[in-house]
């Protein structure tokens, strides 16, 4: 069993850090540097709530009867304002399936024309060879979906029978278009998102090998108690021990087979998530959040006369960025509580703030209290205690 030696500096020197997905996440030095110099590195945009799936873990509960589409001129204005604040990438996260957005190609082309990286989340169902070529030529990075290699599990989690083959075909088209050929040794342009839960826990190692062998970023997330997951997958959430075991096993695999090393306690496996320091999330209604599951805009305590003020149709992006609320968010590392507050890895990891927020709100906490609570996913102390003689 891996214990203290997991994070030994002498051991780390023997390995290389894992490759990152271009435009998706930024490392600790760049993240803190951006925060301390008052600049953004990325924004995340919802473009539409329409979806050709009904994923049972969807935080936005997309694919329902209420279809919203973002105004293209508003999106262009927001991106232009974000460019003035220093962004390097725009993460088109959809809310629903972004490729269904009526002006999807115009949006990607516009982002690219500004010298900004378009980074796309997609279930890849509509990813034809022609669309994959278009995205490749426009300097995009793509995060696909691969929750399971078993059709029956993937279909169940995606909420539609027969979808597994369509997802795999789209992923294959991206690989053939060149997305599986890295731009540089430490950077890739293709990822797959995998939401770990009790249904697919036994497949994690196989999917991990598939990703590493094909230059694909493995976006191994943990099922979060928000959105549709609260109603449909509450009994499939992993406990701390299950999370600990699979993360340490994947670290062992990376060291043994691929010469890679990483901090095992970060929210996304093999990748820290520091987006609260350098990113803003704009939902379909124009409301600003720190990240997707951190739904500050839905909480009554943060509304003024019944409305959430941090909205791109009411304030400029700079005004929101400079607001008291988002200044607090960007400096969340300074007020973290519990194990997170005194952790020696704070320069690399602030825990999953979205997960902490979701758990805290479900327990009746106030928004800022929930945002700073210790990460409920972290197993660092348990790991060290298990290794004590």
Shape designation: globular
Strand order of the largest sheet: 8-7-5-4-3-2-9-10
Q: Calculate the mean pLDDT score and round it.
A: 90
Q: Quote the beta fraction.
A: 5-15%
Q: What Rg do the Cα atoms give?
A: 20 Å
Order of helices and strands: HEHEHEHEHEHHEEHEHHHEEHHHHHH
Number of strands: 10
Number of helices: 17
What low-confidence regions span 5 or more consecutive residues with pLDDT below 50?
Answer: 1-11, 383-389
Oligomer: single chain
Terminal CA distance reads 13 Å
Strand count, sense and barrel status of the largest sheet are: 8 strands, mixed
* Helical amount: 25-40%
Estimated structural class: alpha/beta
Question: How are the elements arranged and paired?
Answer:
Layout lengths: L8 H4 L7 E2 L6 H9 L5 E7 L23 H13 L4 E7 L8 H10 L3 E5 L7 H9 L3 E5 L5 H8 L4 H17 L7 E2 L1 E7 L7 H10 L3 E6 L6 H4 L7 H19 L16 H4 E4 L5 E2 L27 H6 L1 H7 L7 H4 L11 H10 L4 H6 L7 H7 L3
Parallel strand pairs: 1-6, 2-3, 2-9, 3-4, 4-5, 5-7, 7-8
Antiparallel strand pairs: 9-10
